Amino acid sequence: MNRRLLILYFMIVWLSISSASILVRLSNAPGSICAFWRLFFTVLIILPFWFKRGCKLDSFSAISGLFLGLHFIFWMESLFLIPVLVSTVLVVTYPFYNLIFDRLFFHEKIFLRQIICLITGFVCVLMYFNPFFNKDLNPIGLILALLGGFFASVYFTIGRFVRKIMGVDLIIYAFSSYTSGLIVALIYNLVYRVDLFNYTLSTYLYLVLMAIIPMLGGHTLMNYLLKYVKTSSVTAIALGEPVGAGLLAYFILSETVDLYKIILSSIIIFTLIMIAYDEIRGNL
């Protein structure tokens, strides 16, 4: 893949996924509702392209979608319990898991500097748990965000297998996985009797934007890259999400960011740049 094009894709993904948490908070809808409608509108958008592919479904893609649905539900619920910056930092721990999965399941070479950078980034993530700087954080919110990160790692690992090893078409993979995730979100809301429909017009506007920006520009583009780039490298883009989301939360939601978090976020974004650089240099 062309190096300049790859860098452009990485930037689009980063900017897109950074907007997700802000759109969730602005919607004023429960996290599980955001998960449902985000996937619902995304499925509607790609439905015409799926028809052109012969309406095919893939079972492995559907399995990955189960974890996508859980990822969205757990993470989006955490956004209403802990600050945006903390939630996004914890949920992006999935590149750490994917680094291990790449080695164990795909036997792919991992550069030494990538390992060092991912470990450094993950250590910085853990430092957000420092009680001296982070008092009064809801432990349930922290756990939900971490579980959301783990489910995301499984989702991307299966996606890597489906896209690269099985060679499943992007649209077929996306439609199968997103529909599966949609069903998971629907079942969750029905079980817990969460109202699916009675929301304001502005709420639905933000839900549609979730489908267009972070879902198509973020997740779908990441799924496209999985065919050409290692899972750990694709998901490492998300290590920069806390920086983008934190800045947006500061300017839009008036959430303050202290110096401690700024320093940690800066280190995390630096590790992201190094990981992406080594991947590009490795002749994708």
Automatic annotation (TrEMBL):
SUPFAM superfamilies: Multidrug resistance efflux transporter EmrE (SSF103481). InterPro entries: EamA_dom, EmrE-like. Pfam families: EamA. Coiled coil: none annotated. The chain crosses the membrane at residues 30-50, 57-74, 80-99, 111-133, 139-158, 170-192, 204-226, 233-253, 259-277. Keywords: Membrane, Transmembrane, Transmembrane helix. Residues 140-276 form the EamA domain. One of its GO terms (cellular component) is membrane. This is EamA/RhaT family transporter.
